[in-house]
Amino acid sequence: MALIVDMDKIVSLCKRRGFIFQSSEIYGGLGSAWDYGPLGVELKRNLKQAWWKSVVHERDDMLGLDASILMHPNTWKASGHTENFSDVLVDCKKCKKRFRQDHVGKTCPECGSKDFTEGRPFNLMLKTYLGAVEDESSITYLRPETAQGIFVNFQNCVDTSRKRLPFGIAQVGKSFRNEVTPGNFTFRTREFEQMEVEYFTRPDQAEQSHQKWIEDRFDWYLNLGLKKENLRRRVHADDELAHYAKGCTDIEYHFPFGWSELEGIANRADYDLQQHSKVSGKDLRYQDPVSQEKFFPYVIEPSGGVDRAALAFLVDAYHEEDVEGSTRVVLRLHKNLVPTQVAVLPLLKKNHEIVALAKNLRRDLQKSLTCVYDDTAAIGKLYRRQDEVGTFFCVTVDVQSLEDKQVTVRSRDTMKQERVSVDRLKDYLTEKFSNDF
Ligand code: ATP
Fold this sequence. Notes:
This protein is of the alpha+beta class and 437 residues long. The protein is built from 13 helices and 23 strands. It folds into two domains: 237 residues, Bira Bifunctional Protein, Domain 2 (BirA Bifunctional Protein, domain 2, 2-Layer Sandwich); 95 residues, Anticodon-binding domain (Rossmann fold, 3-Layer(aba) Sandwich).
């Protein structure tokens, strides 16, 4: 059983080192909204890039899309969100706290009372008005999922790409939900990013495709370094499924606050395209180019959260170890996810030649690698600082480097050091990052 890290340590590291800050902190913060700092934004970009590479660029049956966050309100009528995208809320009659009915048992988690109000639905979509007049006709919503942007563009994508079934469309983008009980740091927020695929198949191939996507998505997390013992699949029971869904499996991660969903992979049958056809009046059936047969494809939907994935990777990577009597905190992020690949550190910041060589190396390396220069502390402290944020290699320039034209390359994970000639340094380092994970 892997050691579960304390969530406070992650939150504190994220703030201290510039991964994640509270939103609008100088005004006292906005509940459950978070800003990704200089290192957090790099981690997130790397994550999205690794996802895009895996689900779009490395496949020949996938297309990408970037649809608008604001959509025609009828979209949400068709998808069922206007009517059904609700959580059932109850209030504790004693302490007056409000909860999601499915999150409380029979007793109030705050005060232990068993006296609740009747449950009533609360729609999670964030409403806004478009244009200068705030009336019924100008109401629209911030999208609660990216998926519908894909469905409404199904025909556009088929027409312009000439793709034949099975094929899919991928999208990454912000979604918004007026969550009643946000929390657990970035796990549940009201504004978050999703990475979603809608994969269209013939109905009789949907089940096979569903199983394949579950495998592929599970392996993606493993290949990027999440520990196997912290990942599991959870098959939804029939009573958890939407009425149209044929099945859903969640990939769950063992967070410090318990096993929780990272990504859901659902077989949505032909519900979405059918609904959009009905409400828009446009025929969204797929026409087989050979038999001319027309039908609604089934859809497999792997739907994950960027923020939840980033949190899982941070938690999983966090390690504390004893090195010569002191604690080394090291973030063992996968090399494709690290915010900084290489740090160049001068051993003596008062020696102009050492500093000049180090800065030159940084300038050269940063054309192909993410690279920083730091001379603001003694070398031991600089190493610890880089370990704590996951920097994969440290390159140290010392007095001897000026004579033998070699520098020390130190690995984050093994702390082993190797002398590498300045001429070979760029090739040496880029090679370490170039092979696939
Ligand atoms: P939950 O049951 O946790 O509310 P869900 O089943 O409603 O999640 P989906 O609608 O399947 O979630 O959304 C797909 C993915 O989007 C989730 O697996 C998660 O990674 C991410 N996600 C959904 N809601 C949030 C949120 N409020 N904050 C952060 N990420 C979210």
